[in-house]
Structure formats: C-alpha cells, structure tokens
Amino acid sequence: MTSKADTKVIVDPGQDDLKYKKAHTFSDAGSFFPLHRNLFIMNIFFFIVLIVCGVLLILCGNYGNTGYFSFMSLTNKYPGVAVADEVTTALTLELLQLSCWIGGFCFIFFSFISLYKTIVLYKLMLARRPWEREQWNQPRKDGDNILINGKVRDKSLNEQVEYLNPEQKRDMNLHFRPVVEPK
Questions:
Q1: At 175, which helix (H) or strand (E)?
Q2: Residue 29 has pLDDT above 70, yes or no
C-alpha cells in the first residue's frame, strides 16, 4: 500500500485546456463498464419488482388468512351449513395463506439483496474520484489486487491504456487526469 508521501503525480503537458473530471457519469458507465451498467439497471428493476410482488404476496396471504378464519367460523358456528369437503377446503386455504406469506417474505428478502448489489455497483462505477486509492472500498481493492496478481500493473501506463477500446480512449482524452505512480 502506498501513502501520499510515496507517490508522485505526473501530468501530461498540453492538458491545461482540458476540464477536470471529479467522477464518472452514468453515460461513462456505458463505455467504461457496459456489463456493470446493465447489471446495475437490472438490479434496480429486480428490486422494484421483487418489493412490489413481495408486498402483494403478503397481502394475498392475509386475504387467505381471513378466508380461513371466515371458513372456520362458518363451519363451527352455523351447524346447518354443509360444506362438501371441509378438510380439503381448510387445507387449501391454509396452503394459500402460508405459501403467499413465505413467498412474499422471500421476495422482500431478495429485494434487499438486489438493493445491496445495486449500492455496491453504484459505488464501484460512480464513485467520486475513483483514481484516489485511499478512498477505495473493498471490492475496488480486490479488483486492483487481481490486476496486480495478473501482472497488468507491472506494465507502463501507455501499455495499460492499450487495453481500452477506442471509445474509452477518446473519453479519457477529453479530461485532465493526474497520473499517480508509486515510487
């Protein structure tokens, strides 16, 4: 791990007229992180769908519970009421109630997992000043360790830039970027 005292900032000459970029925008995510942006959008969609369906399933379970108690009050309170198959009807109402409640709670649980994944992807893609290593979260540090173990970080900055596609290179050339290299 390098400290601020062990780093030097290299600024390319001729970058005086470029604007300073503080964070990636959502449109940058399309060129820099297309897969992660799509996962981000899908997780937002899944969160909304799962939370809505979970709440609706719990409501359906409550209606099933109301139906079960209504059925029990009919069969126990009114002796003149005859039901064709009392046991099967009661079991069906109980199954409806429990399956809706269990399904609803599972949907809500998985919606929070989807929300967590959305927050992690947001912090990875759209963090302020993602080039400052001191502010990195653990997934970003793990990704950097993968690049270090894969010997990508051993290459020069120009060799690392060659991994980018033309759209990414064009976007990076629009902004002033201080290059921080460890001593």
A1: strand 175-176
A2: no
Tokens of 100: 């809706």
Give the C-alpha separation, 115 to 113, whole Å. Answer: 5
Burial class (CB in 10 A: 0-12, 13-18, 19+), 75: middle
Contact present, 123 and 141 (Cβ < 8 Å): no
DSSP classification of residue 154? T
The predicted-structure confidence for 51-90, as pLDDT tens digits, reads as follows 999 999 999 999 999 999 988 888 887 777 777 888 898 9
Do 18 and 33 have their domain in common? no
Tokens of 109: 């649980």
Please state the pTM of the whole predicted model: 0.60
Instruction: Judge whether 26 and 126 are in contact, CB under 8 Å.
Output: yes
Rounded to 10 deg, the angle between the 86-125 and 34-77 helix axes is 160
Do residues 46 and 67 both lie within one domain?
Answer: yes
- Looking at residue 10, what is its pLDDT? 42
Residue 64 token pair: 């099933």
Which structural domain, as residue segments, surrounds residue 99? 24-126
* Residue owning tokens 């900032």: 9
| Residue 172: count of CB within 10 angstroms of its CB | 15
pLDDT in tens, 114-150: 999 998 888 777 766 666 667 777 777 787 788 788 8
Which helix (H) or strand (E) covers residue 176, if one does? strand 175-176
